[in-house]
Design goal:
The complex is a heterodimer. By secondary structure, chain A is α/β, with parallel strands linked by helices. In chain A, about 25% of the residues lie in helices and about 30% in strands. Chain A has three domains: about 80 residues, 2Fe-2S iron-sulphur cluster binding domain, sarcosine oxidase, alpha subunit, N-terminal domain (Ubiquitin-like (UB roll), Roll); about 220 residues, FAD/NAD(P)-binding domain, CATH 3.50.50; about 110 residues, FAD/NAD(P)-binding domain, CATH 3.50.50. Chain A is globular, with a radius of gyration of 22 Å. The N and C termini of chain A lie far apart (about 50 Å). The model of chain A has no long low-confidence stretch (mean pLDDT about 90). Chain B folds into two domains: about 170 residues, FAD/NAD(P)-binding domain (3-Layer(bba) Sandwich); about 150 residues, D-Amino Acid Oxidase, Chain A, domain 2. Chain B has ten helices and 18 strands. Chain B is globular, with a radius of gyration of 21 Å. The N terminus of chain B is likely disordered. Classes of the chains: A alpha/beta, B alpha/beta. Chains A and B meet through β6 and β11 of A and loops of B.
Chain lengths: ~475, ~400
């Protein structure tokens, strides 16, 4: 199920290795994760639910859900979608809960770090915030829980829209390379495989970070939270069958690891993500049977929709998935027509082995809420968000947000928000900033939000700032 | 005669506001259980909760149910409570995740050992099935525990102690209370209480009249009591707790130590849930999580069970103990007629709620209780603290 030819991407898979899965030898490549290697080997059931023992498969691919928890080298509940596979590794599926490892040898290490600015999350917003704050003289620590930086940019093969300053016409993967290159040539201290486990008050701000088995206490003067978002789930019977995968998870498998998540797919959602990922699925050689959209109109850009239609993919508006079925994994789905949000008729079945959900995102705000930032429910921004001012500072002085965790938008605005937050943090730390540069960043953000597709976040942000 | 309630019901009706026989302030386990017991006796109760049900100490507690106390009042209360817990799933029709895995209480010194032996004597004389264990016997009972690492020299064990899920128990009581006619108002904070002929309960949304008011407001009991001029000696203290990732069953009993101030057990969900007290914690309402706790809990629990070093902590949180000068609850009447208190549980409110609710419903409706609770009346503090509960943890 590995992709051998791709119109845009070439995959650096690294050396061939072997690992054990439930006692069976599986071939893989060293640059893959455990879950992606298992998917490539045709293994769909990665875990079983704790309460009802239902099979669960690959879903988010970025360590945010829990459907890929397995026992790896004796350690239970490992997020296998973000764990690099290693030669000779022993991977076992868990029957619900895992077993406590016997191993009593456990060397825990401690470290304390100080920084002017700590940025949490190395996606488009976090990278931009770190680069900007560092450029102005701040000592920056950039923290990400993944083994590679770049966030979701590293799987965006499509070209960005907008003007030249917004890197229009450039593919996301290329933008990621540019940003990572800037980080490399800066003084930013990048901490990968490092998860922030909590915010504490210890005279000043303190973030507890766990990197492998090391506990790091980080004392930053300013914190910029750029933790992104998580995939929304849609409620329908069978939505937990292996083969129901989030759009981000599908992109991770195809575009990062070069693995085909299935052979034929039903895409749920005709917003930009649904349309773009449908096209990417076709580029990966997967049969896109149809796109269904519960709304009466296509939500995404018409150019994306037109590309799909030219290739013969039907996009059914006012249609949704009623249920998914299959024995142990998706074998098909029942589609129904909606009239005024009510089901009409019996619907029809579509045979697919993959149902891709592109039904929106929810801001990842846990660390902000735990820190005690004031919250506000703004549906246009994706739900609960931390209240923030125009400089992206929250109700707690010195804690900023940027990117999707400040409200769902897209990568171009995320980068701009990162820049503004980075600049404001640097300025408040006493570093000199160029007023024009800041003004330009605000202007850019305004331009990006001025089109019809910027309407939702524009309304959302205005609700936050108290203007009608 | 049906006591206070029926008496009051004969007085003239108020047309401008709603009327309830009993207003219960606090939608934790005690408030909800009391509403249920009152409803069973045909009394119309209204519960006022400022957040969601169990949003105070109830939903933040470890869910432990322990009979091994060192004052007779506490032992008797929890023993009666256990009888109710044992039948609760059937009576309330809810899975409350009840598990009688026992409590293993560790002694760390010869002095503590002797004290525990006396406790066992007292507890056994009251009919509790409890045993003193020597060091070797602890290893046999709980092989995963590193007895030397925990520095234990002996222990007591009671098999009928255990734990249940506080959210489920609260919901079970609340739903059954509603089914029998009680009204439960969540997100309704009591802003004031006026005492005239009846009590007038003032919330942001409305006014309500009640014949009887019961203060079951946990760490806010003191403020609620002040609204009618009743002074309570209670002080709020923060206590912190954490839960790990889920595991297959590895730990049967709840393990506690008064010396280390630690308690932990494995819930039916598979999570290890436990807390440790901070002797330097200042009094005050504060539900922030501290790093001090996370480090202290991790270093202590892994000394007890070294293989827990492999576990990930999923969450930590904090809740409030409503602490009295003798660490025993305050139950019963006050100097304001028909204003009752059910508070001051000092960290043990969940485990005794089923029985205190029963007793309070008897006191309110029948004017007398089936078990003596005079020792727990607020009057006792006038004479100064006589007998302090020593078996307090967390």
């Amino acid at each position: 199920m590995r992709i051998s030819e791709h119109p845009i991407l070439s995959f650096d898979r690294g050396k061939k290795i072997t690992f054990l899965f439930n006692g069976k030898k599986i071939s893989a490549y060293e640059n893959e994760t455990v879950a992606s290697a298992l998917t490539a080997a045709g293994i769909n059931v990665l875990s079983r639910s704790i309460k009802y023992n239902r099979p669960r498969g690959f879903f988010c691919g970025i360590g945010k859900c829990s459907s890929c928890l397995m026992t790896v080298d004796g350690v239970p509940n490992v997020k296998t979608c973000v764990t690099p596979v290693k030669d000779g590794m022993v991977v076992e599926s868990q029957d619900g809960k895992g077993n406590l490892p016997e191993n009593k040898e456990f060397k825990s290490k401690k470290e304390t770090l100080h920084a002017d600015v700590a940025v949490v999350g190395a996606g488009p917003a976090g990278l931009s915030a770190a680069i900007t704050a560092s450029k102005h003289g701040a000592d920056v620590l950039l923290i990400d829980e993944n083994p590679v930086a770049g966030g979701q940019l590293i799987k965006q093969t499509h070209k960005f829209f907008g003007s030249k300053e917004h890197k229009a016409g450039v593919r996301g993967i290329e933008i990621a390379k540019l940003l990572l290159n800037e980080i490399e040539n800066s003084n930013v201290n990048l901490l990968l495989n490092a998860g922030v486990i909590g915010y504490y008050k210890d005279n000043s701000h303190m973030l507890a970070v766990v990197q492998n088995s090391k506990l790091i206490k980080v004392y930053p003067k300013k914190i910029i939270v750029a933790t992104g978002a998580s995939e929304n789930m849609l409620a329908f019977p069978g939505n937990d069958l292996p083969g129901v995968v989030g759009a981000g998870g599908v992109q991770t498998l195809m575009n990062v690891y070069g693995i085909r998540p299935g052979n034929s797919v039903l895409m749920v959602g005709a917003g930009n993500v649904g349309l773009i990922v449908s096209y990417q699925l076709m580029q990966a050689g997967i049969n896109v049977k149809m796109v269904v959209e519960a709304l009466p109109k296509i939500g995404g850009y018409i150019v994306h929709a037109a590309k799909l239609r030219r290739l013969g993919v039907p996009i059914l508006t006012s249609h949704t998935v009623k249920n998914a079925y299959g024995n142990g994994r998706v074998e098909g789905a029942r589609i129904v027509k909606l009239e005024n949000w009510k089901e009409t008729g019996e619907g029809f079945d579509v045979d697919v082995d993959l149902i891709c959900l592109a039904v929106g995102l929810t801001p990842t705000c846990e660390i902000l809420f735990q820190a005690g930032c004031e919250t506000k429910y703004i549906p246009e921004l994706g739900g609960w968000v931390a209240r923030h001012d125009r400089n992206l500072e929250t109700s707690i002085k010195g804690i900023y947000v940027a990117g999707d965790c400040s409200g769902i938008e897209e990568a171009s605005t995320a980068m701009m928000e990162g820049r503004i937050a980075g600049m404001d943090a640097a300025e408040k730390l006493g570093f000199k900033i160029d007023e024009k540069e800041k003004k330009d960043a605000f202007e850019n953000l305004k331009t990006l939000r001025s089109g019809p597709f910027g309407e939702k976040p524009r309304i959302g942000k205005e609700k936050m700032w108290g203007r009608k | 005669m049906r006591g206070i309630v029926s008496e009051a019901n004969n007085s003239e009706a108020f047309s401008e506001a709603k009327m309830s026989d009993v207003a219960v302030i606090g939608g934790g386990i005690n408030g909800c259980a009391l509403a249920y017991e009152l409803a069973k006796k045909g009394v119309n109760a209204t519960v006022f909760e400022k957040g969601y049900l169990g949003s105070g100490a109830t939903g933040r507690c470890g869910g432990g149910i322990r009979q091994q106390f060192d004052t007779e009042d506490n032992i008797r209360l929890v023993m009666e409570s256990v009888k109710i817990f044992e039948k609760m799933e059937k009576e309330l029709g809810y899975d409350i995740e009840y598990d009688q895995g026992g409590y293993l209480v560790l002694a760390h010194s010869d002095e503590e050992k002797e004290r525990f032996k006396k406790n066992v004597e007292l507890q056994r004389s009251m009919g509790l099935g409890v045993n003193f264990l020597e060091k070797e016997e602890i290893k046999e009972l709980c092989p995963i525990l590193d007895v030397d690492g925990a520095k234990a020299v002996g222990a007591t064990f009671c098999q009928t102690d255990g734990h249940a899920n506080p959210f489920r128990v609260t919901e079970a009581y609340a739903k059954n209370a509603e089914r029998l006619g009680a009204e439960i108002k969540t997100f309704t904070e009591v802003k004031g209480i006026k005492k005239e002929k009846r009590f007038e309960i003032i919330t942001e949304k409305e006014k309500m009249f009640a014949d009887v008011v019961v203060n079951a407001a946990g760490c806010y009991s003191k403020q609620i009591a002040e609204m009618v001029g009743v002074k309570l000696p209670n002080k709020p203290y923060r206590h912190e707790i954490l839960a790990t990732e889920s595991l297959k069953p590895v730990l049967k009993p709840m393990i506690i130590s008064f010396m280390d101030g630690i308690y932990f057990c494995q819930h039916k969900t598979g999570q290890i849930v436990g807390g440790i007290g901070n002797p330097d914690e200042p009094s005050g309402i504060n539900t922030e999580s501290s790093f001090w706790f996370l480090e202290k809990m991790a270093s202590t629990i892994t000394r007890y069970i070294p293989s827990f070093k492999n576990l990930n902590v999923l969450r930590q949180w904090a809740g409030m103990y409503d602490v009295t000068p003798d660490a025993r609850p305050i139950l019963g009447k006050t100097n304001v007629k028909n204003f009752f208190v059910v508070c001051g549980f000092s960290g043990h409110g969940f485990m005794v709620a089923p029985v205190t609710a029963k007793l309070m419903s008897e006191l309110i409706v029948d004017g007398k209780t089936s078990m003596p609770i005079d020792n727990l009346s607020i009057e006792r503090f006038k004479k100064g603290v006589i007998r302090k509960e020593g078996a307090v943890v967390g």
